[in-house]
Structure prediction request, 362 residues.
Amino acid sequence: MYLSQLDVFQVRNLKDIRTSCHPQANIIFGANGSGKTSFLEAIYILGRGRSFRHRDLRVVVNSEAEELVVSARLVREQSSTEHQIGIKRTSKGLFEARLDGSSLQSAAQLVSELPLQLIDAHSFMLLEGGPLQRRQFLDWGVFHVEHGYTHLWRRFQKTLKQRNQLLRHGRIDEDLLRTWTAELIPLCEQITQFRKQYLLALSDQLKQAVSAFDGLGQVSLDYYCGWDEDRTLTDVYAADYSRDVGTKTTSHGAHRADIRIKVDGQSAADHLSRGQIKLLVYALKLAQAAHYREHTGESCLFLLDDLPAELDYQHRGQVISYLNDLGCQYFITGVDKKDFDELVQAVPHQMFHMEHGVALVD
Prediction:
């Protein structure tokens, strides 16, 4: 899968960009503030329906406009068919997305159509941040290979919300609490099973990705399901009753899951250098891309913000080489064109020079 054409209107300082994209390497360089990251942000909005830089998409709309629009021609590798995909967001928060002229009802449909992997300065939070970042990493992978996972996840979130709302009431209806608990338990167990299966399947790709980088040891992923697996979840919720009532929230379940990421048997976040953590994040994301391709026959798209600032020259080359082997289309930003000249000279590519929100083909 790749974008052959990208049109961006009123995304921050990108007022009107219409450009062809290379199916493999796309390099965006230019001075700070020229619009490089906004270029990536526009693609991310197209694939996720939201920004990776700000929760409120209204501030992403150009201050002189009332709406932003991002559209693209998307080519499927398996069928060689071309599709038109687009999204509109207004400064009032309205959402509109279309695929080949038909309306899409949610951002989840965008995610399914345009699988994206983003790596930027905040990506190290996958290791150093809280469990939420690792659950999101895990659920991205399961979502893209298990078609029924979205429906299951929505049922789980709705049931968990209902149980927590009941716990927040001053007086709890015991029968209703038992009902929501009984519904929540099998949903937690099904989500856990999907996640475990995915992590197990990801292991082979992760070993290959890690071996492509110098300086990383043996990486393992251990899944914590969100409760003590030596006990049934029914017993856990029974024992948690007083605690849940006191804290007014559900203490255990799939929403408390985490991945323990270890290198040579030790916590990666505690024992790796910042440079090694960045490398491991790349390995994890590339492993996901390899797994996705193995199961779907399609490649996902990578957005790499300020690659030269994140990795040294040797490891930059290793990342680009791995992306090329996977057949992924990728967009990389950086300040200086010289940082990329030797890295991509043997790779088919397109260079864009960003100046004041305008993308000039170099």
